[in-house]
Amino acid sequence: MKFSKYLKPTSACILGVFGLFTLSFVPKEKADDKIKIAKEVKMTFKVNVADNVELPEGFADTLKKAEAILSKILSSEDFKEALSKRSFADSAFSKTKKSCFERIYDDNGRVSGLGVYENITRNPKVEIEWVIKKYKDGEKTSVMGFSTFCVNKITSHDYWIKNGQYLSLRFVRHLAHEYTHVCGYKHDKLLPKEHKFKKGDDPAMGVGGIVGDIMLDWTKKGLI
Ligand SMILES: [Zn+2]
Question: Is the pTM of this model over 0.70?
Answer without folding.
Answer: yes
